[in-house]
Design goal:
The chain is mostly helical. Helix content is 61%, strand content 8%. The chain has one domain: Arc Repressor Mutant, subunit A (Orthogonal Bundle), CATH 1.10.10. Helix 2 crosses helix 3 and helix 3 packs across helix 4. The protein starts with a helix and ends with a helix.
């Protein structure tokens, strides 16, 4: 079983380009998009992050990160239908793509690997 898991981990890492581990904000935004489970816009992503982490994040930082994630092809966006709440203007909606889900898997596995066995050491720091 361990051999199969190691092979799977190797396969995922090979699909991502070297040095393309997620930054902390990229990771958090991808997790928020997955948690929101569907097409959503930047302000909802921002609210989700603030509610779950208590972290106050600017909407500009959210959209800059969403654009970076889209450039990496981890997410995609499209223009939704106009809404009366926005005075008839449409929203840009985002969703996680398969490559984004793989990036989250790699990031999670990397964190697990790097933190394995460190609980005792944290107590001494």
């Amino acid at each position: 079983m361990a051999l199969d898991v190691s092979f799977y981990w190797f396969y995922i890492v090979e699909e991502m380009k070297r040095g393309e581990l997620l930054g902390s904000l990229e990771h958090i935004i991808l997790l928020a998009l997955v948690r929101l489970d569907g097409d959503t816009h930047g302000m909802i992503v921002r609210r989700e992050i603030e509610e779950r982490t208590g972290r106050n994040i600017s909407i500009g930082a959210v959209y800059a990160t969403l654009e970076r994630l889209e450039a990496k092809r981890y997410i995609s966006s499209f223009i939704g239908e106009p809404t009366p709440q926005r005075g008839g203007r449409a929203k840009r909606l985002f969703r996680v793509d398969a490559a984004g889900k793989r990036a989250l898997e790699v990031s999670e596995q990397t964190i697990r690997s790097m933190t394995a066995g460190l609980k005792d050491r944290w107590r001494t720091i």
